[in-house]
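Question (not urgent): is this output format expected?
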Amino acid sequence: MTALTRRALLATSAATLTAQALPAWAAPYSFKHGAFDVTIVSDGHLVLPVAFLAPDAPADERAMLLKAAGQTAAQYDSPTNVTLIRSRTDLILVDMGSGDRFMPTAGKLWDNLKAAGIDKAKITKVIFTHGHPDHLWGAVDELDDLVTPDATFYVAAKEWDFWRGDDAMRGLPAERAGFVTGARRNYAAIKDRVKMMKAGDDIVTGLTLVDTPGHTQGHVSLALAGGEGLIVGGDTLTHPLISFAHPEWRPAADHVPEQAAETRRKLLDRLATDKTKLIGFHLPYPGVGLVERKDGAYRFVPTAS
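Got this back:
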């Protein structure tokens, strides 16, 4: 791709995403998809070092992308968008946010649900995309009791085995040792109500687990039937410019970087080819949009209004 077309891509993407800037508080965003009612609820946001994004990428290209995304400081805010799905028989939550032990800017899910008049006690099923703190730690309260004690929990067996196994710390920086402790604490809390799943399994009719490994060893996404389809992508695509323009770059958060890059390429091709809608956990709130091919790369086009 030439520098000119690259700049054109960035300018278009940045202009599109400016209107989707992270608000201080975000009301839930709802839409209908096939037989499902889908609602995005904010858990707040994470504050992360910019160096966390593709540290091995060419410095000048990375700087240009980050400038286009408005991320010129040492830190940036990463939205955390939790998906709630209502089927004919169930109220299904995909991930549970950070809870009260990760970052003070996150862990807002339960308050935001309550403010929107959504009763957490009516949640019947919870699906975890993976075991990182901002997706799993909201499962328990300050006393380590389950926040949704009557729900059934769904975890990919490979992800469960990774976090509870002897190799959980292998390859993780020392400062993330707490990730393992927290995953084990939260998995222990749900062990009597958990169902192990694998790619291709249905949670309910029309809601299917999709294998998207690499960010973690057993990371999964969700596919909703209806129209051109909908993918709840978890952390497969985490940055509104970098993940799409450079899926080959290696974010520091990926456990298996080369596998994560291949997963991004495959998912982007699928989304662009099939015109399938995407919900990204860390994309600009509410994280709903389409993927388009552009000058040999991809771009994220928000569709929420």
